[in-house]
Amino acid sequence: MTTSPFDSTLERREAATLGMWAFLATEVLFFGPLFFGYVHGRLASPDAFVAGSHHMHIVLGTLNTAILMTSSLTMALGVRAARTGSGSLKTMLTLTALLGLTFLGVKGSEYWMEAKEVANASGAELQFYFLYFAMTGLHALHMTIGLGVIAWLWRHARGFGRHYHAPVEVSGLYWHFVDIVWVFLYPMFYLLERYSA
Amino acid sequence: MSTPSPNGWGYLGEGYTLRSWLTTHDHKRIAILYMVAITAFFFLGGAAAALMRLELATPAGDVVSATTYNKLFTIHGVIMVWFFLIPSIPSVLGNFLVPLMIGARDMAFPRLNLASWYFYVVGGLFTLGALVAGGVDTGWTFYTPYSTRFSDTNVLLVLVGVFIVGFSSILTGLNIVVTVHKLRAPGLTWFRLPLFIWANYATSLILLLATPVLAMTLTLVALERLFKVGIFDPALGGDPLLFQHLFWFYSHPAVYIMILPAMGVASEIIPCFARRTVFGYRFMAYAILGIASIGFLVWGHHMFVSGQSMYAGMVFSLLSFLVAIPSAIKVFNWTATLYKGSIYFSAPMLYALGFVGLFTIGGLTGLFLASLALDVHLTDTYFVIAHFHYIMVGGSVMAYLGAIHFWWPKISGRMYPETMGRIAALTIFFGFNLTFFPQYLLGWLGMPRRYHEYPPELQVLNLFSSAGAAVLAIGYLLPLLYLGWSLFFGRRAPDNPWQATGLEWQTSSPPPQHNFEQQPRVERGPYDYQPVR
Q1: Could you tell me the fold of the domain covering B27-505?
Q2: Residue ranges per domain, chain B?
Q3: ipTM score of the complex?
Q4: How far is B103 from chain A (nearest CA, A)?
Q5: Is the pLDDT confidence value at A3 over 70?
């Protein structure tokens, strides 16, 4: 029913990549109001934000940062495997997914512990928690979608190779974007207490 | 050049079942799906406006209650902004014309294109659901804390609807950006692109970069409403100004989402019916990009009296004046295009000329509102209503209708009745001015917006306005009737009835499924018109 609007797979790949970059630009601005709200809240009540930050589990957060960065590495290796045909795409996707799942598990256990503390919070500290849950929650949602995409790639891994790997490549872009968001969230929530003006 | 498609009806003849339409990946058919949907919403939003004008015909609030009136202007705003104006030109004509004008077989992502229509429909169903469940009374602006704490109407349903329809906008924008970048015909360089393409490209960038901010802002409103924890409600330690900043960061560029494609339409129609190449093509293209970028930096002019910093107000005022420069370049260049042209007053040309005039008035009154001191007097009065209706209805809707007429032969394969087209264009122009010009005067006299009653001394002007609304309603119904008639009884359209340049006129009317029998090649710039001697 549909003939491709493209003349070649190269053209198609270029379009897919540009489309993903455009989508990521949208994503940055989707997170934007939350970052803006964070800046506003922190400027308005800096002490409450530092106090809230004291309740974060910095060891788990740091561990999670390392896990997520490693998953970016395995994802990049996966993209290289698909592009050059060297190494196993499936292995790399599996590793990435396992690291991603571990991240979500750790994050979930943090939520479990923090849920009790939120009940006692009030005022601007509650606002800090609201932003924390909204931003890390949205991040976790993006990771969950990413894991779904990885599962799809894994199922179709055999079809990718030197000539056709656009889906792996754009999924890689997406995964790295989600990691980069975390690189901003980590200092905003976990490291804030270490900063004293 | 043209090769008639097998059954003579091109893409329209590819399937007649409902299923063939609802599962199509053809950009032209998706454009038709959008056209049907937004037309329905247009008349729904118009009905709400008609009821409001009926109420305002007399000073007493006697036709509807104050609460109902609040719901009427809310649903009018929500529907007209998100379900008609924003998707109007980009999703209907952009979808139909972008691939045709750049010599492509389809949009870059045909399946995503269809998905965007379904997002639109689902968002629309949520909004209609809210309407059926009793309506919403926050105004289309959802100002906090009213929307998060006080309103006891179906705010959540509408928030979800607008959130979802936002994704329709984003996906359409993404598709147009990638299509223009990657699928241009051989020889079609950036500065050979028709200005309609430039306009839709710039619009798509705004759709991509502004819509997500609205989506997240409305999500925060919904969360605050649900969980009573938030960042907008002062009682919860939040700041309502934060909401206004975020809301207008989207909603001001949204005005340019509505007007830029309209400018693109005028830039196609005017050269064609003046038989002149467009004056200052490059300036026109740069002006489009200039408006799109400065448009992101002026949102604070909606907040001059909100209590934001005075210095912020001064900067926003200055930047708002700056937008006038590229806008004026465009008006100047359309006028210069007409100079010494062989002007033919066809129906599309009447719409396009109406657009230029009304846009100019709307734009100049915008400068009144951009002036800090004057704005204090005019904020939230009918002057503001008149100003933005001159831009959105006088500008965008006129251009949308002009475009529908201009490309109707290509879209439907039929000619519309020319005399009826002209009568409708003039009726709409007259009705529009009768409706909205008195509102400038009312606003200047201090009549505030969003009230269902007013002092008796303002009745004469309000009566003019309500009478104009009746004329306008007839004007809008006319095209619905005769265009519908022409679908069955109209004369068969030749491939290029206007002797227009542009790749879309080189293929058959209606175009075949994949637009061109042979890949077109482009050797010169657009608007290669010669005056009639």
Answers
A1: Cytochrome C Oxidase; Chain A (1.20.210)
A2: 27-505
A3: 0.94
A4: 11
A5: no
